[in-house]
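go over both lines:
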Amino acid sequence: MPMRLSRTMLRATVFAVGLAFAMPMAAPPAEARGAGESFADLAEKLLPGVVNISSVQTVKTEGRGMDIPAFPPGSPFEQFFKDFMERSRPPGQQGQRQRPEHKAQSLGSGFIVDPSGIVITNNHVIDGADEITVILQDNTSLKAKLIGRDERTDIAVLKVESDKPLPAVTFGDSDKARVGDWVLAIGNPFGLGGSVTAGIVSARGRNIDQGPYDNFIQTDAAINKGNSGGPLFNMDGEVVGINTAIYSPSGGSIGIGFSIPSNMAKNVVAQLRDFGKARRGWLGVRIQQVSPDLAESVGLKEASGAMVAGVNDDGPADKAKLKSGDIILKFNDQAVKEMRSLPLIVAQTEIGKEVPVTIWRDGKEVSLKVRVGELPEDQKVAAASEKKAPGKATELTGLGVKLAELTDELRGKFQIGADQKGVVITEVEAGTPAAERGLKAGDVIVEVAQEEVKTPGDVAERIEKARKANRKSILMLVQSGDSPRFIPLPVTPSPDRKPG
């Protein structure tokens, strides 16, 4: 599913390329692998194993006629509009609420991994669905049953019944996929069905801040709305990824797509098939990034590993005698190059298994043994994506406010909780509207114009949008200590301040 989806009109544009030169061509390097003259034979073999997925969800809406504008929960404006609409109802109908229903349909892709009818797709393709239909290449429609789904990795497993074995594809080894390798994406873009696109592996190990286990394969094979849940194949016809997201300003492909690696997917799929849910390894630590300055201060040659910032009482790490200040360098014989790689390594480790852990403590390497636990349902993973290296403060143009992304240092400086999300205010100039409305350093901006913000750029973008719309102020949800509050902040620069 693209990061930004919109209704997109399809237009065919033809570009003519008509220059040819009779020049000798240098022979390709011996190690280069060509794609061949055509992908047709491979596509013909794989297409039957790829399916279209249609899901239907019943959506209920309140009220009749004018809808209540969307306000943050608990907002006084929400109650105001409810009271206004209640008074506007015809006599005798006060207190009555109609709940008209309509069916919302979404389309996606998937692939068969077992002839008995096991189908893999993205969780967001079927999330909230009342009915799920799997459509084969020959247009046969089969009702699907949800076996299990995992929100953290966005994977779902379905089961369909058929009177004959279904064509299936197989998982490959995504660790062998190299940057530059040819790949094919097959799916259901814009509901067109059975579409094949080709490209290369553009990058590996991408973190796009979608969850604690981000480890995406990036590809330039065209992926559009409706491709979600479809397979990414290597040239051996093996699934090396599940197409999940794209980066796009418009909602259409610009050549930056992301796929869940097959080696991660295989483990999750097995868990969903066996238990109906994903069971993950758990260490029970809170971690932070090892900066160069931090590494130097503890005598570590390279800024690598994950520093333990806290240990859960009676968790696996606590029982193994890990403590705050330890730097985890290896876990189960796998090097921890950076902090965000540790949650993924631990999650994929067999539950109950005793594994070796190498840590840096008191200026030397120490080896320990840890018995991996099972991640509790309500346990939040050590938020690697929230722990970021210190960033440069950004000033809001003309408003006298400086912002920065939340880092460990800023959390400590302003006593901000580990679970708090948003953008922290690092400085407020006296005499500005922001100061007059009580904003101060240490406050955290959580929402702007009723949308969550994660970076100073998000805040600046919302403000600039409000200015272009000629709005005089913008509503912000600000967390001050333990108290959240809404603040209407003027977005017009003060007369005595120059923009920029």
